[in-house]
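2024-03-11 09:14:02 INFO worker-7 job=invfold-0412 stage=load source=structure_tokens
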């Protein structure tokens, strides 16, 4: 995996960006025209810049954390900012689970994407996206509330309940065993 991916800001839509905390730097924010930042960390302080509004959602990256409580609030804020011709950056520590889940929720609510489409879109734009199983379960429930049906199901696996889309990703991968390590080669 390219570690540089963790320090880059990914454009999810023309008004929504996703990154790790390490990528949130004044120059990058200014260059992209970001006007609002949603910081989804417990203890990383908000970036303070003129003309940039920051809010903090304090949720741990734990499967038991209740991130779903913020899906509507954050999606509504991202939508409102976009309608005012602003741009929102959502970040957590790594830009993998919490912030990605909020971006996925926005895509479902305001871009009418199914959970599967929203996840694949975010994954395409930022390949390290991988919400923890608890957040994915909350996204499955959110999709059912929004659309009355589900495009992703939670399924039993050897490690517990996982979204079926994760199983599909593994099914499309092969493992090549070397003398001292395992290399994963994905074909998707």
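2024-03-11 09:14:09 INFO worker-7 stage=emit residues=188
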């Amino acid at each position: 995996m390219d570690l540089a991916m963790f320090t880059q800001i990914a454009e999810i839509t023309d008004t929504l960006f996703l990154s790790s905390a390490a990528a949130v730097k004044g120059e990058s924010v200014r260059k992209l025209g970001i006007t609002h930042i949603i910081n989804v960390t417990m203890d990383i302080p908000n970036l303070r810049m003129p003309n940039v509004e920051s809010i903090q959602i304090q949720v741990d990256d734990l499967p038991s954390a209740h991130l779903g409580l913020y899906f509507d609030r954050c999606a509504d804020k991202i939508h409102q900012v976009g309608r005012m011709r602003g741009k929102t950056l959502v970040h957590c520590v790594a830009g993998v689970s919490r912030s990605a889940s909020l971006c996925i929720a926005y895509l479902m609510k305001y871009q009418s994407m199914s959970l599967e489409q929203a996840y694949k879109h975010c994954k395409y734009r930022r390949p390290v996206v991988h919400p923890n199983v608890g957040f994915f379960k909350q996204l499955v429930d959110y999709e059912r509330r929004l659309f009355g049906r589900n495009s992703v199901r939670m399924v039993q696996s050897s490690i517990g309940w996982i979204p079926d889309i994760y199983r599909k990703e593994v099914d499309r991968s092969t493992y090549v065993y070397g003398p001292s390590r395992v290399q994963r080669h994905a074909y998707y």
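2024-03-11 09:14:09 INFO worker-7 stage=report msg="The mean pLDDT is 89."
2024-03-11 09:14:10 INFO worker-7 job finished
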